[in-house]
Amino acid sequence: MRKQIAAANWKMNLTLQEAEILMDALLATPHDLNENQEAVFGVPFPYLVNIKSKLAGRKNVFVAAQNCSDKKSGAYTGEVSAEMLKSIAVDYVILGHSERREYFNESHAMLAGKINICLENGLQPIFCCGEPLSIRETESQNSYVETQLKESLFHLSAEQLTGFVIAYEPIWAIGTGKTASNEQAQEMHAHIRNVISNQYGAAVADSISILYGGSVKANNAAAIFAQPDVDGGLVGGASLVAEDFAAIINSLK
Ligand code: PGA
Questions:
Q1: What confidence tens digit (pLDDT) does each residue in 90-104 have?
Q2: Which structural domain, as residue segments, surrounds residue 160?
């Protein structure tokens, strides 16, 4: 059975002091994870060690970096390598978020390189895909997302893709308060699973956790997560409020 995941994406928010207050509040707020469920905290690089240590001893709770370099090591001032993340026991790395694709010019090929270097270091990518509004308006979102998957993931072996984590985040729904409808989310998630199934077979496709992202809130998470091909969410704004994110964790199926 594939994992159900509530992943927080704090983006470039919070000071360390604020982050610690948020994490303490969240840990004190009733939330429950069964053995098939995970909570993942995508926190800024400087807080990874700190937040990881706060989570020590808790089951099914992990930290994620929000990016990593596609280079191994060397003269790349300001970059953070997969090996560095591994050395501080990071679990997941969010890759290909639309903000990174747009503001930092991350290409399909660069993302394929980042995926490879993460896997080589035992880090599980959370690979983000999703279309802008202009593509949705011309109803070409299916082929747009298919290209994102093919160009950055389809060089992987079936074994590497088994148990992978993908986040579908329609760009028009990120930070806008405008969520995809439950039907739109299910339709795209089924499409993603189908594209993977055609290439790798149903067993691989069924093993992949496909998270929905884009204005997931405490009051809409349960309905979105209830869709058969939605395996949880990648949550921005609502992950910065302890009670809200606890409620989202409790909405996992
Ligand atoms: P949002 O962000 O929940 O604030 O829409 C989601 C994301 O960008 O991962």
A1: 999 999 999 999 999
A2: 4-249
